[in-house]
Amino acid sequence: MRDLLCLVNSSEVRIEGLETLDYLDNLSHKEEQGDAITFESEVDRVYVSSSNVVAVLDHEKKRSFVIRKEGLPDVVVWNPWENKSKTMVDFGDAEYKQMLCVDAAVVERAIILKPGEEWTGKLELSAVSSTNCSDHLDHPVSI
Prior knowledge:
This protein is mainly beta. It has two helices and nine strands; from the N terminus they run E-E-E-E-E-E-E-H-E-E-H. A five-stranded antiparallel β-sheet has the order 3-2-4-7-8, with no helix packed on it. Strands 1-5-6-9 form a four-stranded antiparallel β-sheet. A hairpin with a 4-residue loop joins strand 5 (53-58) and strand 6. The longest helix has 7 residues, at 81-87. GO terms for molecular function: carbohydrate binding; glucose-6-phosphate 1-epimerase activity. It comes from Panicum miliaceum (Proso millet). One of its GO terms (cellular component) is cytoplasm.
């Protein structure tokens, strides 16, 4: 979801559609119980078997990003925060405050194809000029 990078102030962001799901925490290397997603330290999570629609609400800029996915069962949420961003050569020391990665993925269960088989994953990213996206989460993926 490179389009979300450098577009949001991570401290003013809320993510809808993942808050009740269990997730794999790549920092603690264990499965955690779902809770509100906040950005006050490094976040590196995989939400497994998530819904096909997730919204990133940017309250500061009064806009939202709606992610619709198909064939991609998981969602990765990542922000390196201060300490890790200082060790990354392609990151300015304070850029972690202006970015958030939310991306559809296949992480928990690999997709294994036999010769001649096909697999398709689709992702649609929409920008909505509002921070009230709840009605967008109920609509099915239209591809």
